[in-house]
Amino acid sequence: MQPIRSVGGALTILLALNTLVFAQGTADIVGRVTDTSGGVLPAVTVTAENIATKNVRTTITSGTGDYVFTLLPIGVYTVRIELTGFQPVNSRVELATGDRARVDARLQLGTVEESIIVTGVSPLLQTDSATVSSLIDQKTVQDAPIPGRNIIRMVQLIPGASEGAVSSLANGTRPDERRQTSSVSINGVNDVLNNQLVDGMDNNERSIGTVAIKPSIDAIAEVRVQTNMYTAETGRTLGGVINIITKSGGNQFHGSGFEFGRHERFDSRLFFAEGKPITRQNQYGGSLGGPIKSSKTFFFADYEGYRIRQGVPSLITVPTVKMRTGDFSELSTPIYDAMNAVRTPFPGNVIPAERFDPIAAKYVALYPMPTNGALSNNYAFTNNRTQNNQATDFRVDHRFNDNDTVFARYSYNKTDTVTPSLCPPVTIGSQTIDPTCIVGGAATGNYAGPNYTSAHNMVGSWAHVFSATTISEIKANFSKPDILSLGPNYGKNLGDFFGVANANDGTADASGLPLMEMRPTTFAAVGETQWVPLHVYNKAYQVAGSVTQARGAHNLKIGGAMVLRRWGVLQSNSAQGLWGFDSTPTNSGTGTGGHAFASFLLGYPTDVRRLYTPGSPVYHTDESSAYVQDDWRATSWLTVNLGVRYDVFGPLTEKDDHLSNFVPAEGKLLVAGQDGVSRTAGVKTDFSNIGPRLGFSSTLPHQMVLRGGWGLAYYPNNKNAGAYMKNPPFTANYGPITSNAASNGVPNMFLKDGLPVVTFSSPQSPAGNVIGTDVNFKSDRSKQFNLMIEKEFAGNVVTAGYIGSRGDRLNLGVAMNYNLAPAGPGAVQSRRPYFSQYPQMANVNILSNVGKSTYNAWQFGFNRRYRTGLTMNSHYTWSHSRQMTPVPWDFSQFEWGDTQQFDVRHRWALTANYELPWGKTFTGVAHGFLSAWQVNSTAYLQSGVAYTVVNAASRTNTGNNAGTLNGGDRPNINGNPNLPADQRTVQQWFDTSVFSAAPQFTSGNVGLSEMHGPPQRRLDMSIFKDLSMGGTRKLQLRVEVYNVTNTPSFGLPDFNFGSTGFGSISNTGNSIPRQMQFGVKYLF
Questions:
Q1: Can you tell me the distance from the alpha carbon of 1043 to that of 624, in angstroms, rounded to the nearest whole number?
Q2: Alpha-carbon distance 562 to 11, whole Å?
Q3: Bridge partners for 243 per DSSP
Q4: What are phi and psi of 602, to 5 degrees?
């Protein structure tokens, strides 16, 4: 039996015995009761009553005068503290998720009739926990101007968070995430390393690390995000723990109905667009919650629909009219004829038509004619994107008695999206063909085509009070997100149509248009995008439980959880084939001259590849955890948080043992279940994930708190291509066959030759790219620490502090089969380390634990929970995130650089809601017009993210393509590339003159991520008018404006040295122009 199975079985038994614990959407109330002299009072009766549900919990103080209520559902409570002979104290406290509210009392001698009433507010100072977290409260959730009513937008505004870059999960341009943004980078960590929860339970899509379900805004009570020094009950993250808490019903019926709409006539024009594209957006739905049986059973239900049809303008580079005919006279660089050992320029820079490759000659018709006479950014086009989404939730809460409560919830999301191509379809004969016109590289393009995403989530919970000091909870969860993405030409065998031999094999998964990629990737490619078709299907089963006991000044928790994950990824890397073209076959042979489109017309690819994975693998893995937490009130002014967590993240297995792992130490492929190899293909279970947690919170004079902590956290980051171990004999892998030249420099690989017949090589003779996982693979680890100080004044809190982390054992794909010999002309295959053993094997990429990272930040914040009509959260983060990766010319060496996409040095963010005080004392028409107005806003301002300048066309000839691995090979730099701020324009963002080509077959001295892109900024605002309809009913009229100032936030510049657009900016990244939305909402 595998050790992980034994650990899992033991945890399951413990859960059944109700001895485990797990964090959820609850809060605690703690306190110490003393007399007027400061002496502690034991045996004091303390009662906490939920005002909405009338649920009552009672406890007594310990011998140290301490009491604690744990696992209280969020809401407003009345806390009554009473002891015979003393005046009772009544306090009102509002609890949010994760709060540990301190309600101390000093009892005075007296009678019951002389009770003291304390007007309570939400707990502001964090007096009993070292965890760094942020709360997005219900008012902010409901009232903030949120584009698309997407709650992730609000999470991006908490301290330490940002959206990330376009190539992450940010803007619906990946084949596996087409919904509105799901990207949140927290404290400089990759956006896929967060732990997503709903009602405290798993909400993670396993294969890419995104969100499974997104409840409707009207279904969300609040969101708690932990960002550093998590308690021991929290794990499986290196970034943040994002816990969305759904609403529950109460003793009164409450609900909503809403309709929001957008139209392009109220929007501004995109900065680079020639006009305003069409926009038709509607969001509608409603919610209802209330009692099924008063004070016993409650329900909450909601539905939201979302429909949008939106024009997507694009500005791309296509061949000029002359280039289509082989005439490159518009270029200053010569085009060389490579069919002679000594390359000579074509006369007049014109390629004769009879030299055109027959397939390339047909493909030219797929390119649209330019819309202007420029050499780059010469085709403007607008196509329509459509998306239809629906979300629904249903929740029931029931109280059997004061000791037993249960709840259950079901949530469902469905999103259908059609992403447009960047150029129009073309009809050739009987075929209508979508060229796609990919820009940004085959692996990072816009992924045109349909996408169907759905998600189911179910959770159930039972809480039981054993005594005044002991409480337990058991929870179970099921999650099922599914993603299906198809190419625009799915089902059409267009390779056969164009005469590309063996590109289509008769199956649907290998149908479509073979891909012709031009490099630099700013030049449009035509064909199916890599990685589609894609089918990702997930099932996650989770059980969790807890026992919490108060013992004197200690609050002890013991617990754990288990998640059983089953998922599959049906995906090939260019199943129809990918032909890569750059300037190498048409340059002088020493690196000057040449053009990718010229190489294409001649049919001289630089590399050819195909990775075809038929069938649907089903992966299995387990995530087990156990922990102990002790929150110790050491003195009247000091709380110490002590804990330890243990995680076991099992290695992958596959239902039919379809795993094949390349092990460099043995120099061979290990096939799961064969020749004595384990079902994990040799990968061992990591039992080293012990995570101690130590924190403190100290109450200082003058309403101040000093708190801090240190802890270890782990993440099961084994979900990239290396972890899936898709190798022979389960894949048909061809290429990349690189360096299209014999030893004399004459091309020996041609487009017209097509592909070989699909074959599945044996593990003894692997062909093409090979991947694998280090057999001693460890979980990613992060050491986290913080020191914060808080000061409360006039119902507000200011915070300042340091937050840091040190990551190690981080997973990196390390190349093992690149060219080791001194680089030179000709094919590299014979110079690869494994050539003598595996002559057909190309790149080898091994998932290893060699990465490291650092993060240092100062955070300053101002927070005001709702009071006198105003809610506000404003904060500034000054940070630096760095990572260590292999250098591109020697993968046994490493270099430090800024964390690309996630190194945001400066960021300020604001959320605010203000109920205008006007007109409250007026009557009649004046009261109706001037009263009940509310203004809301969100804003952020941040510095740009890091990037690396790379060569547009490969010059090192090491067997790895430019721009594809750790920044690709790079040019030389001599000087400061950063222009003064007043000289930066979209035409030239940085000084391109300081860059020069490194000598052929060498990599330059440009460092990793030494440059930063444009700053990002945005202000969103809304204004509401409430119209009273009697009682608690009101009609709310809304106007929301996104990017009020219509300030463009530009994307990264073209950092491909040698491209025609080098140094210029042609997109606005994730930003939007000014948009207006109108809405009406009925509340009761």
A1: 44
A2: 7
A3: 197, 224
A4: -80, -15
440: left (phi over 0), alpha (psi -120 to 50) or beta: left
Q: Return the HEC string of 337-371.
A: ECCCCCCEECHHHECCHHHCCHHHHHHHHHCCCCC
Measured CA angle at 567 (ends 564, 570), to 5 deg: 170
Encoded tokens for 638: 């000091």
Q: Which two tokens stand for residue 546?
A: 């807890």
Does residue 72 contact residue 48 with C-beta atoms inside 8 Å? yes
What SS3 string covers 430-443?
CEEECCCCECCCCC
What is the rounded distance in angstroms from the CA atom of residue 578 to the CA atom of residue 623? 37
| 8 A C-beta contact, residue 920 and residue 899 | no
Residue-wise pLDDT for 184-203, tens only, equals 899 998 888 899 999 999 99
Amino acid at 647: D
CA–CA separation, 1018 vs 162, rounded Å?
13
Sequence letter at residue 320: T
Set out the domains of the chain in order of their start, with CATH numbers.
Answer: 8-118 (2.60.40.1120), 868-1084 (no CATH)
Amino acid at 107: L
Q: Tell me, what amino acid is at 550?
A: A
The helix or strand, by DSSP H or E, that contains position 989, with its residue range, turns out to be: none
Length of the chain: 1084
Rounded CA separation 669/666 (Å): 8
pLDDT in tens, 1035-1073: 999 999 999 999 999 988 988 888 878 999 988 877 889
* Interatomic CA distance for residues 650 and 619, integer angstroms: 11
The values of phi and psi at residue 443, to 5°, are: -90, -10
- Residues 145 and 231: beta-carbon distance below 8 Å: no
Distance CA 220, CA 686 (A): 37
Beta strands in 487-533 (DSSP E): 515-518
Token pair 């057909």 is found at 840
- The H or E element spanning position 495 is helix 494-498
Neighbour count for residue 264 (Cβ, 10 Å):
17
* Whole-angstrom Cα Rg for the chain: 31
How many Å apart are CA 289 and CA 218, to the nearest integer?
Answer: 11
> In angstroms, what CA-CA distances link 607 with 502, 547, 736, 747, 822?
17, 60, 6, 11, 20
Rounded Cα gap, residues 332 and 310, in angstroms? 40
Whole-angstrom distance, CA of residue 167 vs CA of residue 884: 20
H runs (alpha helix) in 518-645? 596-602
Contact 510, 409 (CB under 8 A): no
| Nearest alpha-carbon partner for 565 in 483, 454, 650 | 650
801 has pLDDT over 90 = yes
pLDDT digits (tens, 9 = 90+) for 931-990: 899 999 999 999 998 888 988 777 777 765 544 444 457 899 999 999 998 999 999 999
Which residues lie below 8 Å from residue 622, measured CB to CB, with a gap of 6+?
4, 5, 8, 562, 563, 564, 565, 648, 649, 650
* Cβ atoms of 626 and 20 closer than 8 Å: yes
Tell me phi and psi for residue 90, to 5 degrees: -115, 125
Sheet with 573-581: strands ordered across: 515-518, 573-581, 607-612, 732-738
Interatomic CA distance for residues 664 and 115, integer angstroms: 76
Enumerate the β-bridge partners of residue 524: none
| C-alpha closest to that of 464 among 549, 562, 347, 582 | 549
- Please report, for residues 214, 246, 306, 519, 992, the alpha-carbon distance to residue 300 in angstroms, rounded to integers and kept in the order given: 16, 9, 21, 54, 59
CA angle in degrees (0–180, nearest 5) for 674-840-669? 20
Distance CA 210, CA 225 (A): 16
Contact 759, 766 (CB under 8 A): no
33 neighbors 41 (Cβ within 8 angstroms): yes
User: Quick one: tokens of 433?
Assistant: 């063909």
- Identify which of 861, 883, 880, 882 has the alpha carbon closest to the alpha carbon of residue 872: 861
Compute the mean pLDDT over every residue in the chain, rounded to the nearest whole number.
87
